[in-house]
Each structure stands twice: as C-alpha cells, then as structure tokens.
Write a structure and sequence with these properties.
The structure holds two protein chains of two kinds. By secondary structure, chain A is an alpha/beta fold. Chain A contains eleven helices and 20 strands. In chain A, strands 4-3-5-6-7-8-9-14-13 form a nine-stranded mixed sheet. A four-stranded mixed sheet of chain A has the order 19-18-17-20. Chain B is an alpha/beta fold. Chain B has one domain: 3-Layer(aba) Sandwich (Rossmann fold), CATH 3.40.50. Chain B starts with a strand and ends in an 11-residue tail after the last helix. The chains are: A alpha/beta, B alpha/beta.
Chain lengths: 434, 247
C-alpha cells in the first residue's frame, strides 16, 4: 500500500488545486505588497498591483526575485513580518560574501515539518523508523528540515550531524538505523569506509536513504543502492524557498513531486526569461504560497530541470520535476556547500590587491569533492623563498575556507598558463561525473 | 461546493471587494474574519445577490450563480442569516419560520415536508417552540437570532451564510448558537460560511478561515494556523499589541 502523509493535498484534483493556489497566491501577493518594500517597489516600477493577478497564468506578469534582491535587502529587508514574530533564522552562502538570511514564524516551522514529512513518507519512512541525520546542524536548512519531518512522522531521530564516519557507522550498527539522511557523496564515503572496516551492509538494518543537498546521477543511485542495500531517494529544496521540502521522490522514483499547494513552479528560459511550455528543460522558478515570514515571488532558483504533469502511479497528483541538470549560473556545489567563483575572486583580490588570473578545478577524490584553486604567478606574488611562498599559500587557503566553509588547495602556476577566452572566461573545470 | 474567483463589488464608487477568491467544500465551516469595513458582509451580500458583484465568478455545485436574482439563489440552496437578525417583528415566531419556506410552498414537495422541517427547527431551538405564538418583536436578542437562523433553515439550504450571529449577545447565548451550528454541520451536513467579529470563537468553531483587510484576502488557512498567526492575534484576538512605531 502506498503511504501518503497528506492525502487531501497530495492527491487533490487539478481543478481544486488551482483554485487553492489562486487563493493563496492572491493572499501572498497582498501581504508581500503590503509588508515588503522590495516587492512593492518592484511592482510599482512595472505598474502592477496585486489585483492584476486574476488567474495563475497572470503570475508571468510579475517581476522575478533573485539572489541579488536578497543581498540588497540583507539581512532582514525581505521579511514580511516584524522580527519579533520570527522564531528561527537560517542562511545560505551568498554570491558576494554576504550570506542570504531567511526567517520562519511558528507556523512556517509547522508548514516546513509537514512538507518534509510528506516526502519522507513518500520515500517509505514511517513511525517505526530510526532516522540517522548526517547533515551538518547549523545555519544550513538540511539537518533541521529532515529532523522536524522525522519527528512529525513519529520516527526516532538520531541527530548525528556531519562527519566522524567511523562513529556514524558504529551508531548505524548499534542503534539499528533504518533510514539514512546525508548527501549522496557522503553515502559513498560511508560505503567505502564500511568496505575498509570489513562491514557487510546486509548486516545493517538500513532500509531507505534520503539524499539531497547536491545533484547526483542515476548511476550514483545504483551504486549507493547496491553498496548500502537500501532504497535511495532524492529530494529537492533550497533555503530561500523553505529548505528541504519543496519536492521529493516517491517510491517509484520517477521524478520529485513538487508540493504545489505550497509552491507554484514555473520553467523559464534563463536567457529570455520567458515561461516555457510543460515538459521543456529550463530554469526552475518558484513562488511560495503559504510562507508567512519570508514569502518569495517568482524566485529564480538557477536550477535547470523540467516538469511532468502526468499523474504518477503512486496516486499523487502533484507535478514531478526531474533531477536537476546543472545550473543557469556559475554556482558550484562542493560537498553540499554552494560555492560561487566570485567569492574566491574576492578573496584573491583582497589578498593580492589586483585581479589575478585563476582557475578552479573541481574533482572527486573517491567520493569526496576536492576544489583546487590555481593562480598564475605575477610580480606581486613571486617569492624567492620557499618559506614565504608556503606562508602565502596557507593564508589564501585559510581565507577562502573561512568564506566558503569548505577547504580548498591553492596552487601557483606559470604565468599565461591558464587559457584566456573571449567573454565568459572558463574559470571552472568540473571533472566530477555527475 | 462553492467556488468564488476574483469577485469585485462596489457601493456606488467605493470598491468594497477587490479580487476576492475563496472556496468551500461540502460539510465545511469556513469563517471570514476582519475588522469593520473589511468587506465581510459585502462578501455575503454578493453571494446572495443582495449586492450583485461587478465582476468575477461564483460557482455553486457546478453551476454559475453570479447573475441570478436573490430568490433563485435561495432556490439553489443558499440561505443567508442577515446581520442584525432582521426578523419580521409584527409576525409570530411560527409565521416568521413559515415565511422562510415561502419558495417551497409552490414547489412539488408536499406541505408535510415543510411541517417536518418546522419540527426540526423546533428541535434545534426548543425556545422557539415555547414561544411560537409570540410576536417576533417581543423576543430577546438571542431568541431573535435563533429565529433568524431557523427561518433560513426553513428554505432547506445546503449552504448557510451567517452574518455576525454573535452580535450584541451574551456569551452564554453565543455558546448556545455556536453549538447549534456545530450540530447543523455534523448531523445535517450543512456547509456554513460564517462572518464574525468574534474571531476567537469563530476560529475555534470553523475548519478554515480567510482574513479580509480593506476588501482583500490577506491570509487563508486552517483555523489552527490562523489562531497561531501573530497578525491575526494582534488585529483580531487582542494579543500582541503593536508598538507605537509599528502602527
């Protein structure tokens, strides 16, 4: 039997759903227009008032919201309620050093918990499960989202947080973990470690894995499933929208159901910004329908995907999005952390005082992502002494790590050894097989 | 059961309802809350065509009722209990109730059906049975409210619109009336759209609610969510007062 957490909404007929979406969209617009200067100014600039939205297709008349808007309104400018009503802050990395701040009211946390409970249930988690969460607890939304979802379902949560692979495995054995939550690459790390320790995954109690935080392939899914002996499912979310809980796979693994009673998805052409017909590949744009503290109107996720409106065998009527297929900007996801080349550029600029030629090389060493920053030697950074050069490299590495939150290796290369290109420089080489 | 899309209503030039969309499902109690002048009564009056809306769609059980006159809307199964009771003061309680079934006398159903419904109303409000011969004008406020509800029920509605049933009544009487509304929903499967100033009581009774502000819907949600919403608490539940600089 198919387990569905919230039958009323997840299996709603399209016509009924569209009425609900329209009502919630209009209410969201009225609130955002009234309470958030950024939206009011944008609307006014385009000569639009919320009343102009009379149908779901009118959504395309509205302006987009981008990460740049969030940066300009850092930290609290996009909140639609006074800070006193916000009970939680999360944040994600931003493009220029400043992170993106998002807030939740009490109701928002409840909404979030229920949305996560939906995709966890869809993946096969029930109140009988023991859920080990190996996402880092902190400002990122991943760990808390899955934590709340598990508790809402009534499952047993082990809030392990990230890292300490041996201990993760010990707990997995001793506490009889049945559901594993982490990034897909960390799942491979766990499998590698188990091989080394001589632990047979069949001796564990693992049943289902909920992997997210970074894009992964079907090949990787097969590898994880065979090596960890569990059913590996994907889910999608981003902190600007709510965190995990935007969409998730059911057990048929034929796309992630977007919870359309809470979010309206659109697919646009990232170049022309025009909406594309259903089925086409383009950038995903999301509008929130139920968020109180942090409503987002037509937020450009920069994630490329496509939507399938055909009814799923599981009985859910909600649209399915394909696994994300890259980005429409230059953001990299390294060990689940969002990294923009511009952040590294800024550090280099600050250290050297002039714009260097650099190149980022991303690779996967076993299952872990490694990021190498190659810098061309200039007069400013030419040292005779090995000691001084080493110290310089260490400073840069430390600075970059403190900005990005992930470790990198910095290497100096010969002048003019990095290829120059007209227009968009190919500063990034991604050798990972995703 | 009822779907409203983008209705706009006007009092002369005053734009009282701006693009309001809402829906009710069979058997639901839905409440509209909001301050004075937010457009709650206008919305009910637009539904019953007392003030025909200027634009938008109103679909009841699959058919559009937007351009119908009030009597046809009652025939379709929607009855309104108006604000301030509006009972016929010079008539007896029994006559008031029978007038509620006015449209049914000419239909094919026998008088027996109507008499049966009269008994049902008396069973819901025993007080009305006691006073059935008394003139409506001599009833207390609470009794008049019961009479107004009873009269609306005599049209055998599937959707009942109630406008401020608690207005000017003692708390105990309000409790009694709300209990009857619950019975109506649970036992008679009547769908109810309730407009109330007493937001707390309304949200406790209702399944869902909409918050209206200056003619627009600004919130929609389950009653439990709305009760938790700070904006609702501040504006309508008398909690969380705004600081001077926030007004």
């Amino acid at each position: 039997m198919e387990h569905i957490w919230d039958q009323t909404y997840e299996c709603m007929e399209r016509e009924e759903l569209e009425q609900l979406q329209l009502e919630r969209l209009q209410a969201t617009l009225n609130r955002a227009y009234k309470n958030v200067d950024c939206y009011r100014n944008k609307f006014t600039g385009m000569g639009i008032v919320p009343e102009d939205v009379q149908s779901l297709s009118d959504l395309s008349k509205l302006p987009f919201t981008t990460k740049e808007d969030l940066r300009l309104n850092y930290p609290y400018g996009m909140f639609a309620v006074p800070l006193r009503e916000v009970v939680r802050i999360h944040s994600s990395s931003g493009t220029t050093g400043k992170p993106t701040v998002v807030g939740y009211t009490k109701n928002d946390l409840k909404t979030w918990s229920n949305l996560v409970a939906r995709f966890m249930t869809a993946a096969g988690v029930t109140h009988d499960d023991v859920v080990q969460i190996a996402f880092g607890y902190g400002l990122f939304t991943g760990a808390f989202g899955l934590h709340y979802g598990s508790e809402t379902i009534g499952a047993t949560v082990i809030p392990m947080s990230a890292g300490n692979t041996e201990k993760q495995i010990m707990i997995m054995q001793d506490y009889k973990t049945t559901a594993l939550v982490c990034t897909p690459s960390y799942a491979i790390t766990l499998a590698d470690k188990m091989d080394k320790m001589g632990i047979d995954p069949k001796s564990l109690s693992l049943k289902v894995g909920l992997f997210g935080g970074e894009p992964w392939s079907e090949a990787m899914r097969r590898e994880i499933e065979s090596r960890l002996c569990l059913s590996a499912t994907d889910n999608y979310g981003l902190s600007e929208i709510i965190g995990p809980g935007v969409a998730g796979e059911c057990r048929h693994k034929c796309g992630m159901h977007i919870f359309e009673d809470a979010f309206i998805p659109e697919i646009i052409d990232p170049e022309t910004c025009r909406p594309l017909p259903p089925g086409s590949v383009g950038e995903l744009v999301l509008t929130t329908l139920t968020k109180e503290a942090f409503p987002m109107i037509r937020y450009r996720t920069r994630d490329m995907t496509s939507l399938d409106y055909a009814k799923c065998v599981c009985g859910r009527t909600m649209v399915r999005m394909k696994k994300t297929m890259g980005r429409s900007d230059d953001m990299l996801i390294i060990k689940g952390v969002n990294v923009f080349p511009s952040q590294i550029e800024e550090v280099l600029f600050a250290v050297e005082g002039c714009e260097p030629h650099y190149q980022l090389v991303v690779d996967r060493n076993g299952s872990m992502d490694v990021l190498e920053v190659r810098i061309e030697v200039t007069e400013n950074i030419f040292f005779d002494e090995m000691k001084r050069q080493k110290a310089f490299l260490e400073t840069v590495e430390k600075r970059i790590e403190s900005v990005l939150g992930v470790g990198v290796t910095v290497k100096l290369v010969e002048p003019n050894s990095i290829p120059r290109q007209e227009g968009k420089a190919s500063r990034v080489i991604d050798k990972r097989r995703i | 059961m009822l779907t409203i899309k983008n209705i706009n209503s006007y009092y002369g030039k005053v734009h009282a309802l701006k693009n309001v969309s809402l829906h009710l499902k069979q058997g639901e109690i839905v409440t509209l809350i909001g301050a004075n002048g937010a457009g709650k009564t206008t919305l009910l009056n637009s539904l019953s065509a007392v003030i025909p809306p200027g634009s938008g769609d109103i679909v009841f059980e699959g058919s559009s009722i937007r351009n119908l006159p009030p009597d046809r809307i009652v025939k379709h199964g929607i009855s309104q209990v108006p604000e301030g009771r509006q009972v016929f003061n010079p008539l007896s309680v029994a006559d008031n109730l029978e007038l509620g079934a006015y449209l049914r006398y000419r239909s094919r159903e026998g008088k027996g059906e109507i008499a049966k419904d009269l008994d049902t109303v008396y069973a819901l409000f025993p007080r009305l049975l006691e006073r059935r011969k008394q003139l409506a004008g001599t009833l207390s406020g609470g009794e008049q409210q019961m009479l107004a509800i009873g009269r609306a029920l005599m049209a055998k509605p599937r959707l009942l619109l109630l406008d401020e049933p608690s207005m000017g009544l003692a708390p105990l009487v309000v409790q009694e009336i709300f209990r009857v509304l619950e019975t109506l929903r649970n036992e008679k499967k009547t769908t109810i759209l309730l407009v109330e100033q007493n937001a707390k009581a309304a949200l406790r009774l209702a399944d869902r609610g909409y918050v209206l502000e200056t003619g627009k819907v600004i919130l929609e949600g389950l009653s439990s969510e709305l009760l938790e919403n700070k904006e609702v608490q501040r504006a309508y539940l008398g909690k969380e007062k705004k600081e001077v600089w926030e007004r």
